[in-house]
From TrEMBL:
InterPro entries for the chain: Kinase-pyrophosphorylase, PPDK_reg
Identification of the protein by name: Putative pyruvate, phosphate dikinase regulatory protein
Function: Bifunctional serine/threonine kinase and phosphorylase involved in the regulation of the pyruvate, phosphate dikinase (PPDK) by catalyzing its phosphorylation/dephosphorylation.
Entry GO MF terms: ADP binding; ATP binding; phosphotransferase activity, phosphate group as acceptor; protein serine/threonine kinase activity
Native source species: Paenibacillus apis
Family, per entry: Belongs to the pyruvate, phosphate/water dikinase regulatory protein family. PDRP subfamily.
Superkingdom to which the source organism belongs: Bacteria
Binding, ADP: G152, V153, S154, R155, V156, S157, K158, T159
EC number: 2.7.11.32, 2.7.4.27
Entry-linked NCBIfam families: PRK05339.1
UniProtKB keywords: Kinase, Nucleotide-binding, Pyruvate, Serine/threonine-protein kinase, Transferase
Length: 270
């Protein structure tokens, strides 16, 4: 393959392909391959569609990642892969087979079950709306209504973490911790297990704030991004967390997804 040619990956699904694409993109992060084209082929229902997909992949020298629950379609894509010498990665099949073998159960084999408009879906929609409406402590009264309250100084990823957790169905709000502002009384009125304090390495936070100031066209040497100020804020925040008795999570070097795992673990333990 020409090194300058774009890598080509097809997501083939009998639903929307979101699961397979998430796996593919997580894999891509492990490689220095910026020139990669990902194409989704959704709602596949026939073997002719499978053949067309595999022919295109063969011509362009890529591979296929697929989530197909119908046995005949999975068999068709395997046969085409052998015929055309194309790599096809079954994202869902091995997991389904493990479930069958271990629990002696039979799958429904209905495409798109993950995206049915059920109670869980509407709960997640409500949680996302709650997170957006209560970002950055807009309404301190929402502390009493939230499933989870994230506390932290500026630029510790409170907002993206709130939205991520909301997509998992948790009504999450975040509140900014600032030494000059007294914390709202509502924080002491809720169970401490609903609160999560976020902290971070001081030097990393300085760099994050400096980049933020640059993006706004402001001097990166402002007091906001000074090491002394950052250390003061983090020390104040830790004192607050301890007084509230809430769990503390250090997000240094962690992706949002990693931090969310720790947060959800705290939720399950309470």
């Amino acid at each position: 393959m020409n090194p300058e040619q774009a890598h080509f990956i097809v997501i083939c699904s009998d639903s929307v392909g979101e699961t397979a694409e998430a796996v593919v993109r997580a894999t891509l992060r492990q490689f220095e391959s910026p020139n990669t084209e990902i194409k989704r082929v959704m709602n596949v229902r026939t073997e002719d569609e499978i053949s067309a997909v595999m022919d295109e992949v063969h011509q362009r020298g890529g591979f296929v990642a697929y989530t197909l629950v119908q046995p005949e379609l999975r068999e068709a894509i395997r046969e085409e892969a052998v015929r055309l010498n194309v790599r096809a990665v079954d994202i869902m099949g091995p997991m389904m087979q493990a479930f069958i073998d271990t629990f002696k159960d039979t799958p429904k084999r209905l495409p798109g079950l993950l995206h049915r408009l059920d109670e869980d879906y509407f709960r997640r929609v409500e949680a996302v709306e709650f997170a957006v409406n209560n970002d950055d402590g807009k309404d301190v009264g929402a502390i009493l209504k939230a499933d989870l309250v994230l506390l932290g100084v500026s630029r510790v990823s409170k907002t993206p973490l709130s939205i991520f957790l909301a997509h998992k169905g948790f009504k999450t709000m975040n509140y900014p911790v600032v030494p000059e502002l007294a914390p709202p009384t509502q924080l002491r009125e809720v169970c401490s297990s609903k609160l999560v304090g976020l902290t971070i390495d001081a030097e990393q936070l300085v760099n994050i704030r400096a980049e933020r100031l640059k993006s706004l066209g402001l001097p990166d040497q402002a007091h906001y991004a000074s090491l002394d100020r950052v250390r003061q804020e983090l020390a104040y925040a830790l004192d607050l967390y301890e007084s509230l008795g809430c769990p503390i999570i250090d997000i240094t070097g962690k992706a949002i997804e990693e931090t969310a795992v720790f947060v959800m673990k705290q939720i399950r333990q309470r």
